[in-house]
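Quick one:
INPUT:
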């Protein structure tokens, strides 16, 4: 599915994921969202929007494993994102 075929909400999420404020977060979050946005359910998009509301320094620390994800923030979406960012060839390492 191309970006023009996505609903307005999905396009907004893709934009927010790729324009976070730091290059590191743009790469990790943006690539994750781009890979999955077409198949996320409405509930998953709600969860994703909550993740996108986190501050970049916190999100980057959690996704890189520099800091553990606090239990209060350990949603299935954030855990999935962190697991994928930890995979070889994912996150910032992929091109």
């Amino acid at each position: 599915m191309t970006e023009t075929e996505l609903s307005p909400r999905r396009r907004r999420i893709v934009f927010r994921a790729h324009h976070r404020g730091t290059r590191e977060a743009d790469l990790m979050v943006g690539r994750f969202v781009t890979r999955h946005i077409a198949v996320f359910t409405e509930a998953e998009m709600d969860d994703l929007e909550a993740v996108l509301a986190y501050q970049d320094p916190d999100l980057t620390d959690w996704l890189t494993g520099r800091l553990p994800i606090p239990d209060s923030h350990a949603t299935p979406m954030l855990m999935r994102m962190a697991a994928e960012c930890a995979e070889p060839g994912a996150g910032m390492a992929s091109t």
